[in-house]
Structures are given as C-alpha cells and as structure tokens.
Amino acid sequence: MKVLRYVVLFAGALLFLFPFYYMLIGSLQSEPDTSVAGAFPTGGLTLHNYADINSRVDLIGSLINSGIFTGGVLLGTVVFGVLAGYALARLRFRGRGTLFMLVLLVQVIPFQLLLIPLYVLIVRGYGLADSYLGMILPFAINTTAVFIFRQFFLQLPDDLFAAARLDGAGEVRVLWSVALPLVRPALLTAVLLTFIGPWNEFLWPFLVTKEAGMQPLAVSLANYISTVSARAANPFGAILAGACVLAAPAVGLFIAFQRQFVSTDLGSGVKG
Amino acid sequence: MIAKVLGRHPVGLILSAPYAVYLAVIFAYPLGFAVWMSFHDYFFAAPGAIVDHPFIGLDNYRAVLGDPGVHQAFRNIVVFLVINVPLTTGLALLLAVTLNRVVHARTFLRVAFYVPYVTASVAVVGVWMFLFNSGGLVNSALGPLAPDPSWLINEHLAMPVIAVFVTWKQLGFFILLYLAALQNVPTELYESASVDGANAWHRFWSVTVPAVRPATALVVILALITGANLFTEPYLLTGGGGPNGASASPVLVMYQRGIQQGEPDFAAALGVLLVLGVLIVAYLNRRLIERD
C-alpha cells in the first residue's frame, strides 16, 4: 500500500514534469526530432535556437517590459495593499465593513466582464495604449494580497498595538515599526503570489500593446507563435527557447521560495 | 463627535483611500459601464469626435442570443466543463489525500504538481503544440493509433485537449486547496471508521469526501470561472478557436467581435450574459454540493 502510494505519486509527478523537460530538450535541438528516442538525445545539443528567437523577438527588451509591468503591480500591491490590509484589520473607521465586503466581492468578479469596458476606457478613452501605465492599471493592487495582509495583521496580538499607542506612537508609526516587521512572511507570500499574475498575464497586455517595443515577453512570444513562426527554419526550437526564457524566472522564484507556498497561507487567502 | 462620524480611527480612511479609489475606478465604474454599453448602440469613434450612443433596449442581447458563433462557443464551454471539472476535482482530491500521507520527497512531489500552475500559459502552450501537432511526440508514440486529423486540428478532439491542458495547468493550485482542507479533518473520524471495520477506500468515501465538501464547492466554482475565462489556449493552441470554431470560447468571441470587429456593445452584452451564466451555475452548484 505504502509502496503503491509512492509509485502513483512519482509516476504522476514525472508525467507533470515531462512537458517542462521536453520544452528544455526541444529548445536545445538544432533539428526537431519528434520520435520517442528523440526525447532522450545523447548529443548534438546547441544554443542556436536561443539566438534565433532573440533575432525575431527582442528578448532583452521584452524581459525589461515584463519586469516593469510586474514591478509596477508589485509596488502598487505592496504599498497600497499593505495600507488597506492594515486599516481593514486594525482600525475602526466608517465604511470599513463595506470595503471588506468589496474585497470579497471583487475576488469573484470574472475579469472578462471588465475586459471590454476597461479596453474602451483605458485604451480609447485615456489614450494609454502602448504605455506601462495602461498595462499596470487594471492589476495595480492585487485584492488577494490585500486579503492576505488583512489576515496576517488580524493575527497579531492586540496588546502589542495597545502598548505602542500608549507610548504615543501614531498609527502610521505603529504600522511601520511594529506591525510590518512581524508580517514579513506574509509580505513574501503576497509578493510571490502577485508576481506570477502580471508576469504570466497575456490577454490584457496583448490588448494594450500593439507596438512591439512595448510588449512584455508573454505577448511578443505569443505573437511570434501565432504569426511569424511559419517562416523560421526550426520554428518549434525557437518557440521552445522563448518559452524557456519566459518560464525560467517564475519557476526559479517558485522553487527557491516554495516553502512560502504552504497550503495554510494560500488557503486562508482564498477561503474567505 | 468626529469619532461618531468617521469612526474611532479616522486615519483608516486615509490609509485605505488609494485601494478604495482603485476599486471604484477599475471595478465599479467599468462594471456599470459594461451594463450601460450592452443596452446602447456603442461603437468606436475617432478620438475627440462627439457621437451619440442611442439606447436600443435589448437589441444587443437579441443579436448575441441569435449568433451561431456564440451558440457554438457556449457549446464548446459545456464540453470543456464536462471534461475539466470532474477530472480536476477527482484528481486534485486523490492526489491531495495521497500527498498528505507521504513522508519522503514531499518537496519534490509538491513542486512537480505546482510548477505548471506558476508557469505562463504562453510558455507551456508552446510545448503542448510541439507535443500534439501532426508529427509530434504524442502521435509518434501512438504510431498507427494516432488520430486523423491530428489532435489540435480535429474538431472532436481540439476542445478535449484544451480541457486536459487546463486540468494539468491548474491542478497544483486545487491540490493546495484540498491539502488545506484536509488539515481540518479530525483524525478521530478516521479512527472510529477504522474501528467500525471500514477499509481505506470506504474511509475515503465516508469520511474524507464529506469532510472536504466546502473545499469541493470552492474548487468547482473556481474551475468554472477558469473555464468561463478561457482565452489564451483557444487563441494560441488551436490557432484562434479552430478548426472551424470547434474550440472557440466566449471570451475569444468577445475579443474577435468586440475589439477586432469593433462591436464593443455586442461584446459587452455577451460578457453580461456569460457572467450571469457563471452566477447561475455557481448558485446551483452551491445548492447541490452544500446541501445538508
């Protein structure tokens, strides 16, 4: 029974990881070899496809765009999300109940309903097409992160805050020097969770950026897949090389910090 | 006096103001705008031009409901959900229960199942195209059993491949939800079931499944929302909802009609109907799964 459990899990895990392995192998083969033996090459691997995709898609420029898009969302979420999460958890003010209800509500509104009006407003109305601001705005403060911040601030003992206030510290000061240092794990979890959203997002930046020089990597790679790849000598090699570059930062961060993705944090974030 | 109007900590209003403004501008206003647009004749005009958008009642809704492309997209989503939802809930629960009981290699196993979830769809779509194209690895492994026409260009198989792709991509997240739910199942329940002579399979059905029912309701709703939001996969994996619209999704139709063909009012009405559909199915699901 015990052995069977491991056999099932390892077989499943290998099946889940195989596309990633194949992505890497395919990106290193000069000629696509789709035979079964071709999945386990013994030599002849090359970095040629990486040079190839780099000549079709400005990899560095796209990565910088992805970075600015993601960085903007992270900054907005960490600064304004922490403030909102702290206020929702520890302060009594008019409208707090309504705001918290909205936090819960927003998490169930599907983005597709907002897609057309946001496009009309941001791209057509405010003229923010092909701009970082236009890309960032709809994701500027991650609501799930606000929720996680609130949960963590709630868990801190009341005495701590009472003591700090007794010492005459203002609310901002209490947040900055008492509460914030204690919720660093939550901060890391929220940052990691927020990171994968904009880094992997395709639909919205695809609608906003038509100019190649402004596109994040997910968009420029998708455009390469859907239009340009037919003309390349080894289109799959180039696509897979681009895919590896796009996947590496998110996968790397996830593996490095996988302990932060523990079930309890995430569970509390989505359970409501 | 101030405390009475603004609350005990008025500073809370200032701290939460940026987030409240963000919600108003990015969610509330566009939401209202979408509903307004769906009842008006709305089209893109040259910048700066002042044009009328007359009220046209339910005309947009009539156009959406009578559109064969929309019918097909909704049928496709039904196919998607019929495959994706049972597969997702079943596999996620089984894997979570099994993962919950192993001691060795937990980190490796968890990472293996979560990695597709944290990777960009655009990146993994590339490798699935490579795996499932006519001369791809899957067909060479199947040999004479390979379907003809091949997976992604076969109208009966394109949508099922997308459903399996999304299951693979999202499963790690749902395993995580179930693992969290399993921590709250009291071990006494298993002990008393064992005393009553229940075997492992029996304990799974009579203890685990009922105990994680709230998590199951959540998993089903989130899988449903994912299905309703489907865009990247039909856009890239099957080249724009092909073959002949057999894998088109409602959001893909919204993009094609609303933005490519310049009928945002049609797309807004489609969006409203899609969300109403999700809400109705989510409500039915709640009644069905959470009945007690």
Automatic annotation (TrEMBL), chain A:
Any Pfam family matching the protein: BPD_transp_1
Main location (coarse class): membrane
Keywords assigned by UniProt, alphabetized: Cell membrane, Membrane, Transmembrane, Transmembrane helix, Transport
Family matches, as CDD domains: TM_PBP2
Transmembrane portions of the chain: 68-87, 99-120, 132-153, 174-196, 236-257
UniProt-annotated location(s): Cell membrane
Bilayer topology term: Multi-pass membrane protein
Source domain of life: Bacteria
Domain ABC transmembrane type-1: 63-257
UniProt xrefs under InterPro entries: MetI-like, MetI-like_sf
Assigned protein family: Belongs to the binding-protein-dependent transport system permease family.
Protein name stated in the entry: Sugar ABC transporter permease
Organism lineage: Bacteria, Bacillati, Actinomycetota, Actinomycetes, Micromonosporales
UniProtKB/TrEMBL annotation, chain B:
Major localization listed first in the record, in broad terms: membrane
PROSITE patterns: ABC_TM1 (PS50928)
Localization in the cell: Cell membrane
Residue span(s) of domain ABC transmembrane type-1: 74-285
One Pfam family this sequence matches: BPD_transp_1
Transmembrane regions listed in the UniProt entry: 12-37, 77-99, 111-131, 157-180, 211-231, 266-284
Recorded topology in the membrane: Multi-pass membrane protein
Matching CDD domains: TM_PBP2
Keywords on record: Cell membrane, Membrane, Transmembrane, Transmembrane helix, Transport
Family per record: Belongs to the binding-protein-dependent transport system permease family.
Protein's name in the database: ABC transporter permease
Protein's organism: Paractinoplanes durhamensis
Native organism taxonomy: Bacteria, Bacillati, Actinomycetota, Actinomycetes, Micromonosporales
